[in-house]
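Anyone else keep sequences and structure tokens together like this?

Example one:
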Amino acid sequence: MRPANEALIVIDMQNDFCPGGALAVQGGDEIVPGINALMDEFRAVVLTQDWHPANHLSFASQHDDAAPMTMTEMPYGPQVLWPDHCVQGSQGAAFHPDLRLDADLIIRKGFRREIDSYSAFFENDRATPTGLHGYLSERGITAITLVGLATDFCVNYSALDGAKLGYAVMVIESLSRGIDLDGSLGAARQAMGDAGVVLG
């Protein structure tokens, strides 16, 4: 068992990000057994869940003549326009059926129509908190291990924000999978390394 100051954060292990889903990450379902086993090592386990309204502005369908996986500019900065995914209450938004759900906390993110939320800690304005930092601080957590989907987006953003907030951060790459959109995976690895995130 890991020390009490360490937490496991499982990022967005949802049906829409697994094979057959609306925004599938290749091999996303392959990491579920390893994540389930890793949960036994931690006293604190947190799951995050993408939780979008059906008309979320990060969806390409909400923009005239916009194709999925293209870029647009939002008030908070550049934004990938995604296929509709993880719509609140849908089967796609549900956790993978084989994932253990015996976590201490589930953080839902991306539920405000006008702003996307990759990070477990902040929405994409990098200022609006999800509440996770307060929860971990109250529990005396100082080190976090991240796994899940996708390495180059939600895992990356969560890792960078965790490091910025002062946590010791590790990302287990064998229990994460990436999208690699125009080199995003390599860029994410570089950014995480530069921020002091340990890639294990």
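And example two:
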Amino acid sequence: MNAIVPTFFRLLGRLPLCVLHALGFVLGLVVWSVSGRYRRVLGDNLAQALGREATLGARLVAAGEAGKGGLETAWVWSRSPETVRRAVRVGPDWAAVEAARSAGRGIVFFTPHLGCFEISAQYYAATQGPITVLFRRPRKAVLAPLMDLGRNRGAMRAVPADAGGVRQLLKALKAGEAIGILPDQVPQAGEGLWAPFFGKPAYTMTLAARLAGMNGSAVFLAFARRRRFGRGFVLEARPIALPEGSAAERVAALNRALETLILSCPAQYLWGYKRYKRPAGVPAPEESLS
């Protein structure tokens, strides 16, 4: 079984991106239709953000886009860095990334669960230089080798979300390199604060806010939007600056920036992710804010 899964994953990644996106869209609809829990989480999260615009059609599209995201990962991890590079177009703000790198500044990329969040760091590593990304180990051990192979290649390094991984991020920033973080990933107890996210308390990591601007680094929200019919991706990198203030104020400001980015392309956000869950050992928001 351990050998079958990686082999199937690699074979899947050899399919054209347009085929994977078509299959993924159908797969996403199937999962949405058979899983009541997933359907409920996706619908509730979408309604929290969009209100009346969270129609049945919007939910179906979001489910289909999530399916695309699942299968396109096989393509991103299986293809050569050059192939990945050719699949990406950059937006006008990318010039600010290149300028920061040319100036020798460290770069912090905040890449939420929006669009193809796997390809942003891959593209940077293939075109600009070293980047260190923080990740959480998969629950299923059989996926760990695939993740290591897909994320540790060329100038890209993936480090686990623990104290050692954070030290690697700090080391990269001090060396004037780039780092990447999923800022909307639910942290473990003691690693976050409750902060509004689309008007509802969400346990939000403090690490991202602490790293923003450290050692004079440039900070960007990165987002690779899927183009239609599997024609690749458009990579945006929007500069942001978090205000001075307490950790709670900076975390809240980051969430507001993420909301604006997500609403620019809401169909491609991973609404099925349990963003509002309460990690074990964390007091409910009412208790923690009292």
